[in-house]
Design a protein that fits this description.
Layout: H1 2-21, E1 102-111, H2 114-126, E2 130-137, E3 142-148, H3 155-165, E4 170-175, H4 187-191, E5 206-211, E6 226-230, H5 242-252, E7 268-273, E8 276-278, E9 281-283, H6 286-298, E10 303-306, H7 314-325, E11 329-333, E12 353-358, E13 374-379, E14 383-387, E15 390-395, H8 398-415, H9 421-431
Helix pairs in contact: 1-2, 5-8, 6-7, 8-9
């Protein structure tokens, strides 16, 4: 880099002069024509035998400059007048090292026209850079030049040097871009530590779920150990089985050729359907939910997955107090009413584990509730799961984050079979991936839940 700067001091004037006398037409120009030849018999000015032109006085310049001439079909200059607009104030930093995010040994330069591109290239060549490619971008009205970085000079140092000496030029590393489609079929499973499917994971566990009915014939659920009962009053239309099918598949779904697999497919799932179709939405009464919870306790479940929420209700609250006293874990959705919304119940009830949702980049779900009742964060944005009548669908919401925390508690119990629920939850708190302010915070709770894994799960646990 030092040699680059030393050479510039005495060559810059030469470079500017060279730019002024450069003739058009380079082999590396795309879409350029060869220089025009002079007509036969023409004599260059000041050549031997040429007659000097008469001396004339130039007319005074016009008060207002005429508009620049444009050729038919030539695109107008980009915003900011002829050439390029001013550089942004916050330029991307030079890459600190050579890595896979940049093309090695290359810089790119954007110019407003071919004359500017050649002028800068001439000066850069005087500093040891070479022109690898140059392309006229006709649709954009720009010229892109790729420069070869001098040997033994890093891309970062070369970029810093050129930016310092050409402060108005648009110069950067030749960054690489990749397709941004995440492996959404199982990104959530990977984030919580359950990325490798095991057909026996969760064996011996009994999970209760209060939701809609299920499509048990869906390929992701067919053959799974599932028991179901409806608590919707006879004669009342039941809600479509979409939501329950999606949540159940996340918990115990079969592995699919697409790569999808349930989190704890070896567990037994007991489903209490409580939702009715009520006009343009689905809902359930506190009574039905309480009846469902009662049935699940009779079935000796160890953990209850509640992907539902609403206002505080004393009937439901009393039922949950009893459930918690029996040592059964209750995991509930934090709510989708927005960051400023009031707390949602039963998630906000003391002792209940409230779950919020994050996306593949660990950013909070934009509709998720926030508050001091949030316990854990889990994947819940664009999560792939089962849907009745189709292979699968992408879903979002704190409802779909709940199964990940439920599964984490199930796998924690595999490692500590005689531990109390409070002990298991404390272990998850200690191992959660902190995402927000240090410690527990109202956005992520204790952080992204991490499942212990299923190393100790086997067929005999079923």
């Amino acid at each position: 880099m030092n040699s680059v700067l030393r050479v510039l001091a005495w060559r810059v004037a030469l470079g500017l002069f060279a730019a002024a006398v450069t003739t058009p037409g380079h082999a590396d120009d795309v879409g350029q024509t060869a220089p025009t030849k002079k007509p036969a018999g023409a004599v260059a000015p000041n050549a031997p035998g040429a007659t000097a032109p008469p001396t004339t006085t130039a007319p005074p310049p016009p008060t207002t400059a005429p508009p620049p001439a444009t050729s038919p079909g030539k695109p107008p200059p980009p915003p900011g007048g002829p050439g390029l607009p001013s550089l942004p104030q916050n330029l991307p930093s030079p890459p600190p090292k050579e890595d896979k995010t940049i093309e090695p040994g290359e810089l790119v330069v954007v110019s407003g026209d071919m004359a500017d591109a050649r002028a800068l290239a001439q000066q850069a060549q005087a500093l040891g850079f070479g022109v690898k490619r140059r392309t006229t971008l006709k649709g954009l009205g720009l010229v892109a030049t790729v420069l070869r970085v001098p040997a033994k000079t890093s891309v970062g140092d070369a970029l810093a040097a050129l930016r310092k000496n050409f402060p108005s030029a648009w110069i950067d590393a030749n960054h690489r871009y990749v397709l941004q489609g995440d492996d959404a079929l199982q990104y959530g499973q990977r984030l919580v530590g359950l990325g490798k499917p095991s057909p026996f994971c969760g064996g011996g566990a009994r999970i209760g779920m209060v939701d809609t009915a299920l499509d048990t014939q869906h390929p992701m659920l067919k053959g799974r150990e599932i028991s179901a009962r409806s608590f919707v009053t006879t004669g009342v239309p039941a809600a479509a089985p979409d939501h329950g099918t999606a949540a159940a598949a996340l918990l115990v779904g079969n592995s699919q050729p697409s790569g999808f697999h349930g989190l704890v497919p070896g567990a037994k799932l007991l489903v209490a359907s409580v939702f009715r179709s009520n006009g343009d939405h689905n809902d359930a009464t506190a009574e039905w939910v309480t009846l469902a919870l009662d049935w699940l306790i009779v079935q000796n479940v160890q953990i209850i997955n509640l992907s539902l929420g609403g206002p505080r209700n004393l009937l439901l609250e009393a039922a949950i107090v009893r459930i918690l006293a029996k040592g059964v874990a209750v995991v509930a959705a934090a709510g989708n009413n927005g960051p400023e919304a009031a707390p949602v119940y039963p998630a906000a009830q003391q002792g209940v584990i409230a779950v919020t949702a994050v996306d593949a980049q660990l950013k909070p779900y934009r509709k998720a509730n926030r508050g001091d009742y949030i316990g854990f964060a889990a994947p819940g944005v664009d999560v792939w799961t089962a849907a009745p009548g189709k292979d699968g669908v992408f879903v979002s919401g704190t409802s779909y984050a709940v199964p990940f925390v439920t599964a984490a508690i199930v796998t924690a119990r595999l490692d500590q079979r005689n531990a109390r629920t409070a002990t298991l939850v404390k272990s998850l708190q200690d191992h959660a991936r902190d995402l927000g302010d240090k410690g527990r915070d109202p956005v992520y709770g204790w952080g992204l839940v991490q499942a212990p894994g299923c190393e100790r799960s086997s067929a005999k646990n079923r």
